[in-house]
Design a protein that fits this description.
heterodimer, A: alpha/beta, 2 domains, 4-stranded parallel sheet, 4 strands, B: alpha/beta, Rossmann fold
Chain lengths: ~160, ~130
């Protein structure tokens, strides 16, 4: 079984996985891989090694890891090889293949232009924050926790 | 009405990290459909590099823009996309009341990025 794992940094902000989850869902719909999952280096769930454990248990023999990063910087060139070494040590029978980060692609200019044509006035600039709050875990580490934007624990004095 | 496209980028202490982004912006400037919609295209950095976002906005306006369309060159809903960038644009709007400011989705929301991820996976398996 072939699996694709989107490797991402992770965030303390609830709802930060919105875009990555959407990519995973679209990649599942494409059907190029038997399994498509996300795995995070820090903060967000699930951690990369938990994702690997789950798909190996489900029968993955080959795992393609695609870094969800614009730049092949420290996290791609240093953190990812390190965590992959850990995965290879735990699952020596599984083949891990690492793809390139996004970096440069003709499609990114298309993405920029589409985004420009989606532009909205100021009243809608903070909609991503409202959507992030809708994915409230709620985590005390989230920047929204205990603020008026946090739907579950708007005040640190009154946790529910 | 003259439109400027402002690409809002995080910035990096390692300037070489911006090279790929600049290539993408050059691709965009070279396209006739983009040039028609946005005669001016500027890059502004939030941290580490110059021009800063307010400086890039100044350049757009000096070039004659009456509408500035800002796009976050970011992959995630994070505190920058949710808070810092809208705040910078609100400040710019207060400074230049005659200019219309709009903000688009961050590029990570684009299905085009999904296609690139699929292409990266395909290239990796083909060469493995």
């Amino acid at each position: 079984m072939d699996a694709l794992v989107l490797f991402s940094h992770g965030s303390l902000l609830c709802g930060a996985g919105e875009a990555l989850d959407a990519h995973a869902e679209r990649l599942r719909a494409r059907g190029d891989f038997d399994r498509v999952e996300v795995g995070y280096l820090n903060y967000s769930e699930p951690p990369f090694l938990d994702t690997v454990a789950r798909i190996v248990e489900a029968g993955a023999k080959r795992i393609v890891v695609v870094p969800y990063f614009l730049v092949a910087g420290y996290f791609v060139t240093s953190s990812l090889p390190k965590i992959l070494n850990e995965a290879r040590a735990i699952y020596p029978e599984v083949e891990f293949i690492v793809a390139d980060a996004l970096r440069h692609d003709a499609g990114l200019a298309d993405a920029l232009l589409d985004a420009a044509h989606s532009a909205r006035p100021a009243a809608q600039w903070r909609e991503p924050l409202a959507r992030a709050a809708a994915a409230c875990r709620p985590s005390p580490q989230c920047p929204l926790y205990g603020t008026s934007a946090c739907p579950k624990v708007p005040s640190p004095e009154a946790p529910t | 009405m003259s439109n400027a496209l402002l690409v809002m980028v995080h910035g990096s202490p390692t300037p070489v990290a911006n090279e790929d982004m600049f290539r993408v912006v050059e691709d965009l400037r070279a396209r006739s459909d983009a040039a028609e919609a946005f005669p001016v295209v500027e890059v502004g950095f939030m941290e580490c590099n110059e021009p800063t976002i307010p400086e890039a906005i100044e350049r757009c306006i000096a070039a004659g823009a009456t509408r500035v369309v800002a796009v976050p060159y970011f992959l995630h809903t994070g505190t920058h996309v949710c808070g810092d960038l809208p705040t910078l644009l609100e400040e710019a709007q207060a400074r230049y009341p005659a200019v219309e400011f709009l903000m688009g989705d961050y590029i990570g929301l684009s299905p085009r990025v999904t296609e690139i991820l699929a292409a990266r996976a395909e290239a990796a398996t083909a060469s493995a």
